[in-house]
Amino acid sequence: MLNENMIDVAEMIGSSYRQLQRVLRYFIKQEYMKKIDKGKYMILDFKSLQELGKDLYHI
């Protein structure tokens, strides 16, 4: 479960807060994650998220 300040998370990954929100909405729509509460998300499909990251990091 992710329970962090979204502005801090965006800064850590070199993104804007708005772009982070768009990505989180996309992940929710694809059912990779679900929103638990304000600022709290749960990963539902870790394997799919790993697959998305493979090309990015050449794993």
Automatic annotation (TrEMBL):
InterPro entries: WH-like_DNA-bd_sf. It comes from the Bacteria. This is HTH crp-type domain-containing protein. It comes from Massilimicrobiota timonensis.
